[in-house]
Every structure is written in structure tokens, then in C-alpha cells.
């Protein structure tokens, strides 16, 4: 990566650390707008906007010159062709499971900072979601693989651990 990185997509399954890593990476590119795809998709009480509204809002962000967008594979279709770098967070299953186990207790009774108001974390509800996410891990992996099959290798970085994440931050800092 020898050019400045201005448009970054961070994707992965639930619990892979997308939000945390996006915030860390945004420190390296302060001019980039930091966007959670969940903030685009959700209204309140975990209800999703219409597909047309989601696509329209994502298109407006992707049209800008500098952004970091984090989210699952459904954002890839609209972003991959415009991005400078795609970071696929693919940690071990056990690490995702631990993160998904802990997350509802960190924000119990509150809305996580990256979400629109009114999307409150309650452990029972979030554990149901976490179990479904972990159960569908293979399908999630296949969906991301399929969405990235035509992504040029020089634009794609797969991170499986913190060493990989540190290398990405270093490479982005060097490119700036």
C-alpha cells in the first residue's frame, strides 16, 4: 500500500471487532468520516430501515472522498468498487464467542455509542442474537468470501489476530 488510504471498509462477522478496530484506525486518518453500517440500517428497537433507504444513505457516504465504514457483508456490494482498502476481520470462533458473551454486559440497559438511540442492549436479547450469529458462522464466512471474490488482492487484507491488526495500522500510517 504505497498510496494514501482514504476509503476503508472493515467487515467481518458479529463479534469480530469491527467497531473497535474502526475507531482505532480512525485515529490514523482523522479526516475520514467513521461510519457504523448498523447506524445506517437501524431506526430504534433494533428495527431496520427499508432496503432503499439503507442503500441511499450508504451511497451518499460512499460518494465522499474519505471514510471508514464498518459492518457486515451486506455493505460490500455497494462499497468494494469505491474503496482503497478492504479489511476482513476473521478472528477464531472462540474469540468471537467471548466478545459476544461480554458485549451485552458492557452496555446493559444502554445504547452502544455506534448505534442510533433506542437500540438498547439487554443480555437475553443479545445472547439470542449472538447464538444465531455464531451458529451461522460458516454461512457468514462464505457470504464475505463471495462478496470479495473479485476484490483485487492489493486492496484486501485479512486479519486473524492482533498482530495482523497492528500491521494494518502501521501500513495505513506509512501510506499517509
Q: What is the averaged pLDDT score?
A: 87
User: Roughly how much helix do the residues carry, as a percent range?
Assistant: 40-55%
Total count of strands = 5
Rg (C-alpha, Å): 16 Å
The number of helical runs is 8
**What structural category do the secondary elements indicate?**
alpha/beta
**Which of globular, elongated, flat, extended, rod-shaped describes the shape?**
globular
Short description:
The protein is α/β, with parallel strands linked by helices. It contains 8 helices and 5 strands; from the N terminus they run E-H-E-H-H-E-H-E-H-H-H-E-H.
Salient structural properties:
single chain, 176 residues, alpha/beta, five-stranded parallel sheet, 8 helices, globular
Structural account:
This protein is of the alpha/beta class and 176 residues long. The chain has 8 helices and 5 strands. The chain has helices at 18-26, 37-41, 51-62, 76-79, 93-106, 123-135, 137-147, 162-175, and strands at 7-12, 33-36, 67-71, 85-89, 156-159. The chain has a 5-stranded parallel sheet, sandwiched between helices. Helix 5 (93-106) runs antiparallel to helix 6. It is globular. The model has no long low-confidence stretch (mean pLDDT 87).
